[in-house]
Amino acid sequence: MNNIPPIIRHFTDDDLYKFTMCCAVIDNYPRTQVKYRFNDRDNTVYPPGFAEELERQIGYLDDLRITDEEIDFMKRKCSFVPNWFYSFLKGFRYDRNWVRVSQDAEGHLEVEFQGTWSNTILLEVKVLSIISELYYIMNGESDSLDYDDYYNRSWNKAARLIDAGCVFSDFGTRRRASFMAQETVVKAMKECCEAKGGPGKFTGTSNVYFAMKYDLTPIGTMAHELVCAIAGMYGPQMANHIAMETWSQTYRGALGTFLYDTYGWRIFSLNFSEDYANMFKGLRVDSGDNYEQLDLIVEKYRSLNIDPSTKQIVFSNGLNVDEAIKIYRYAKGKCIPSFGIGTHFTNNFPNIKPRNIVIKLLAVKITELWPFYCETCKLSEDKGKYTGKIEVVKRFMEALHLPPLNK
Q1: CB 162 within 8 A of CB 202
Q2: Could you say which of 41, 66, 189, 325 has the lowest number of CB atoms within 10 Å?
Q3: Is the CB of residue 31 less than 8 Å from the CB of residue 116?
Q4: Helix, strand, coil shares, percent, the chain, to 5
Q5: What is the spatial order of strands in the sheet that 109-116 belongs to?
Q6: What residues pair up with 169 in beta bridges, in sequence order?
Q7: What pLDDT was estimated at residue 3?
Q8: Residues 222, 110 contacting (CB under 8 angstroms)
Q9: SS (H, E, C) 46-87
Q10: What CA–CA distances, in Å, run from 155 to 46, 159, 254, 348?
């Protein structure tokens, strides 16, 4: 297995939200230090030698450089990003020393990042996509992937969504079966959208490289990570408020879809005042019951004398085609619904089990001068998506006056 070529070969083979968040971090928290940790929710046993090959693949990232073509594309499609950020990207270099990888005697994988937030923030998606694809390569499953069949099935998924009136995009970089799997999806869905013409629409992909290659719009704003870091530094009660303020200072009202569920709807709704409800064009639902969450959002907008039918709600909570169509039928007229679909698009081959993997922020300190880190966690609307040490989760829940976890 020593001859596996680099899995990541392009600097922008990454999700847009990592770049937009990196820009906001430099703008607002340039000296902040962080720790991240990998979590395999299925407790997978990885093949022997996986950690060593993963380290080699991460080492290849050191040679990546953003190209003038990639910068020109982002300037054209991402006008909300300030020009100074491209100077940063031009000089950015990955460093394998930010990452620690190991594998225990049973084969379970451990991965941690540590360093300056503005540097390490660009590792998450790339490392997750490496782990996902490398798993299938080393298990011998990648040889069985039929991309002609996958193109046809991807086309049919897009056709059903378009015929139903859904506006949707690909969010599947992190857990894709392979680079080729995601490219197959993007190509098929773009060509299907061009052939059918409506009423729904394939609007683009979170992956900046594929957006450039297929002349699509890169899709994305921010992630839970921003709110988690702020909560670690300042506490969870007002973390959403500070995150919204931070985001608005960098983007001045652009990129106005806020991911609200880091600590659940209740605390977010207390932070979601009329000024921010008007400023942000909408919200993203990423956990909980999609229908219940939409009803809560609609009620909140109405309580602020804002017409919810003018607001975009992005649904991205582990969706498939059937569920997206059902949500669209329920949400139509109540809001402007759209859908970000990930694993169901880029890792839905017969007899291949998608990886249930995440990398989450573990701890943060405001500057390198602080002698200690402050631990953080993510709660969301699904207890199964809680991440962080159990004692930290309990402490945050107490601070937010949430009911205790079941013993």
Answers
A1: yes
A2: 41
A3: yes
A4: 50, 15, 35
A5: 99-103, 109-116, 33-40, 357-365, 374-375
A6: 204, 340
A7: 86
A8: no
A9: CCCCHHHHHHHHHHHHHHCCCCHHHHHHHHHHCCCCCCHHHH
A10: 32, 6, 32, 13
Please name every residue paired with 312 in a beta bridge, in sequence order, or none if there are none: 282, 336
Residue 351, token pair as written in the block: 């007899």
pLDDT at 2: 60
Distance (Å, rounded) from C-alpha 56 to C-alpha 247? 35
Tokens (6 digits) for 142: 């990648």
Q: Which residue has the tokens 């704003």?
A: 221
Cα–chain-centroid distance for residue 392? 23
Q: Say how far apart CA 337 and CA 109 lie, in whole Å.
A: 38
State the pLDDT at residue 385.
Answer: 82
The beta-strand segments (E) located in 245-385 are 257-259, 282-285, 312-315, 336-341, 357-365, 374-375
CB distance 317 to 327 below 8 Å: no
Residue 375's Cα: distance from chain center in Å? 21
Tracing tokens 């490289």 back to the chain, one arrives at 209
Q: How far apart are CA 207 and CA 173, in angstroms?
A: 6
Separation in Å, CA 29 to CA 26, 152, 250, 368? 6, 45, 11, 11
If phi > 0 it is left, if psi is from -120 to 50 it is alpha, else beta; for residue 258 that is: beta
Instruction: Give me the average pLDDT of each 10-residue run along the chain (407 residues).
Output: 88 98 98 98 97 98 98 97 98 98 98 98 98 97 97 98 98 98 98 97 98 97 97 98 97 94 97 97 97 98 98 97 98 98 97 96 97 96 88 96 80
The answer to whether the CB of 354 falls within 8 A of the CB of 325 is no
Give CA–CA dist 251/258, Å, rounded. 12
Q: How many CB atoms lie within 10 A of CB 42?
A: 10
Buried b (16+ CB within 10 A) or exposed e, 116-137: bbbbbbbbbbbbbbbbbbbbbb
